[in-house]
Amino acid sequence: MAIDLMKVNDMSVDENVFCILQNLRLLQLNHVKLGGGCEYLLRKLTWLCWHGFPLSSIPDGLYGENLVAIDMRYSNLRQVKNSKNLKNLSLCGCKGSTSTTLASRLRSWFLPPSPTNLLPPSFHGLDRLTTLSLRDCNLSDDALPRDLGSLRSLTNLELGRNSFRSLPASLSNLLRLTSLKLDDNERIETIPDLPRNLDALHASNCTSLERLPDISVASRMRLLNIANCPKLNEAPGLDKSKSISHIDMEGCYDISNTLKNIIHKGCFPGLVLPGNEIPALFNYKNEGATILFKLPEFDGRILSGINVCIVCSSHLEKKETKRITIKLTNHTKGLTKSFRKVAINLVKSCEDHLWQGHLSNKVFKLGSEDEVELIVDCGNTMIVKKTGVYLVFEQDEARLNSKRGLDTDDVAGSSCDNPLQTKRMRFETSQQNIEENMDVA
To answer: Which of 14, 15, 17, 224 has the fewest CB atoms within 10 Å distance of its CB?
Structure first.
């Protein structure tokens, strides 16, 4: 049974309707008023979605032992009872009360914008909690329990749009955590050590953030989104990371030159950061979206790939994820290859930014003294002002990886071997999944 009546006023459901729904497993009654209570226990109910729920607590009849997921966003809910099987609870956008607290043995939370004392003093006992969302809850430093790291089953944590300046140090103890979202925390200044299995860190629009923790500790991290963090200047461990492949640093105007050089020399499939000039270390540069260059004598070196960098701007009203095409023609050998649908996050401002990606030579087989032409096509939504190419040789990678403390096996599995080949990579960004299809024509 599913009813969504968000646009209908004063719709109500009589409690007696539940007596004929004893086998109901999924119930969605968004923005529906309940006439009376609910005395009929729905024993088989496993998922309850009731946006705009009008009562301050969930009736016992809807709280059977099989209930594992509750979504009560934008409701008046103030108290949630214990349930040994509950794994997911969403209360985002609710307006809580200062006089009540949530049950301390709750298994999973999405909590509302509410005063501090809606949270329990401890997370102890929430062993089955897998998803915790405290977004837009107006939480201060003292509101978040210090034993956050005791949530041993937690895989997804969302703490965006709050008022704290720091997070509990126990964050690093969340060994199953794969996604951490801290977006829009304008007061946060520091982030503690990261969990080692973290896959994605979203910390965009953290306007007071000055420094990241050691990125290399999160040995599986692939996505780093720190866009619009204007005070951020350091990202320790980024040069030692074996796994990061996508970085968004749009609007990070204060990053150090050292960090910029680390990024530009890296083999990241895609990154965005401020800038209006192709970096000096790039071997070939040209105005516009086309560049023609002749490769040098390799002198025994092996070309592993090329880094492509463009200076671009857009006039979009909001930030959007678009696709670009990179066409590479080897005039010496008469070969042309096109990389289609490479994802790029276009900036909404007219300010210049750099986009950089890595192309593997396993596809092109570029050789010594080949004449090559590269064309970047971003469609009509973005202007490409400059293009640059940086040659990446295996010997240079070996020296760089030696400084990073990586051995041969690490390099074999690093992002340099996989970029922009026929591969599918998924990353969760904001509230949606952005799927990148990297096809070779």
So the answer is: 14
Q: Which of the four CATH numbers 2.60.120, 2.40.30, 2.60.40, 1.10.150 does domain 284-440 have?
A: 2.60.120
- Tally Cβ neighbours within 10 Å of residue 213: 18
Tokens for 162? 């709050």
CB atoms within 10 A of CB 129: 23
Distance from C-alpha of 217 to C-alpha of 259, rounded to nearest angstrom: 17
What pLDDT tens digit does each residue of the chain (441 aa) get?
A: 554 455 555 566 666 666 666 777 787 877 777 665 565 556 778 888 888 877 777 777 666 778 777 777 777 766 666 555 667 766 665 544 333 334 434 444 555 554 444 456 777 767 778 888 888 877 888 878 889 999 888 999 999 998 899 999 999 999 999 999 999 999 999 999 999 999 999 999 999 999 899 999 999 999 999 989 999 988 898 878 878 878 888 888 888 888 887 777 776 777 888 889 999 989 999 999 999 999 999 999 999 999 999 998 876 666 666 678 899 999 999 999 987 656 565 555 567 888 888 888 988 889 999 999 999 998 777 889 999 999 999 877 665 555 545 443 443 333 444 333 323 222 222 223 222 333 333
In whole angstroms, give the CA distance from residue 73 to residue 290.
50
- In DSSP notation, 15-32 reads GGGGGG-TT--EEEEET-
First to last CA, the chain: 47
Q: Where are the alpha helices (DSSP H) in 340-428?
A: 361-364, 394-404, 408-412
